[in-house]
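I have been asked to look over a protein record a colleague put together. Alongside the sequence sits a line of tokens, each denoting a local backbone shape. Please read both lines and tell me whether the tokens look consistent with the sequence. I do not need a full report, just your reasoning and any doubts. I have pasted the whole thing underneath without changing anything.
>
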Amino acid sequence: MTLTADQMANAATIAEVGRSRGLPERAVVIALATAMQESTLRNLDYGDRDSLGLFQQRPSQGWGTPEQVQDPVYAAGTFYDHLVQVPGWETGELTLVADAVQRSAFPLAYGKWSSFAEELAATLDPAATEAPLCR
């Protein structure tokens, strides 16, 4: 899958927020897979019910204001805040861990993005030398 420049920028923000918090690469992979499933890495201003942003976070469920959940840095930070509270997130199955954060109507949907998210995280690694996956 080829990503647009906007999608790559959003992915880079998600990765940077996780790494700046000292989280392991696994956290970045889970976050990227989740955002791929929820929004295909697009900062959406619409969604199911009041879901918004990269992670389709719901203001009515305590994720923040509509403006906050549409701010990629805030949205990623809030995702990571919830992620690290999931017991066993470091070793659990990606789709189950992501769903424990998101509480999706489609809890097994995140797993299909696992390999892509791993490749994307590696591409976004500051030490990586490969060209990014954008047009």
User: Anything to note?
Assistant: Residues 5-38+73-126 form one domain. Residues 5-20 form the longest helix (16 residues). The mean pLDDT is 94. The chain is about 50% helix and 0% strand.
